[in-house]
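User:
Note these C-alpha cells:
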Amino acid sequence: MIKLHGFSASNYYNVPKLALLEKGVAFEEVLSYTGVGPKYKPEYLDKSPMGKVPALETAEGFISESRAILEYIERAYPDHSLLPDTAFGVAKVHELAQFIELYFELVARRLIPNLLTGTEPDPTVLKEVEASLVKAVAALKRLSTFEQFAYGDQFTLADIAAILNLPIVRNVGKKFLGKDLLTEVPGLDAYCMRMEERPHVKKIRADAEADRPGFMAHLKMLYGF
C-alpha cells in the first residue's frame, strides 16, 4: 500500500490526499511535520530532498512535490480519472489549477506568517498582495464560470486546487484587507458551498482541524510562537 507522508493541516499535503480519496485509492497516512533549514529531520530528506510535505512512498521509491505526486496517482490508478478525456480539456484543467496555485495561493501565502502569529503585515507587502489578488480575481472570471465544477462537467484536479487553496485567500482578505475579494467572482461562492458538501472534502476539513493543535505545537517548538 502506498503511504502519504505529511500532515493534515497542510493544504499541499491535502492536494494528493483528496485526489486519493476521490479516486478510491487505498493509502496509509504517515504523520510528518517539517520545519525550515537545519531543523529538518535528516531521515525525512531521503523522502523529500527539500524537506517539504507531501511525500509519497511507493514500492519503487519516494516522490515529492504535489504536482509530480498527482501525475503518478493518475497514471498508476487510472480509474475514476480526475482529468477530462480530451487533450484540450486536460490542458485547461492544468491551466486553471496552476493559475490558482500561482496567482492566489502563493500570493496569499506571503501573509500566512502574520495569520499564524497574530501580527500585522508589512504595509508594502500588504499592498503588493492586494494588488496581485485584485488582478487575479479579474482574470479568474475569464477562466471559469463555476456553474457546476471548476472546469467541465466532472470533478477534476482544478476542483482540488480551488477547494484547498482559495480558503487561504479568503482568510487573508478578511483578516488584512477587510473584504473577501473572491465574492466578486460570479458563481464562486455557490460553487464553494457545493464543494464543501462533498464527503471527502468534509473529511479533509475535519482532519485538518484535528491536526491543527499538533501543527501549532510543532511551530512553537521550532520557532517559539
Notes: The radius of gyration is 18 Å. Helices lie at 11-23, 66-76, 87-108, 112-117, 123-143, 157-177, 188-196, 199-223.
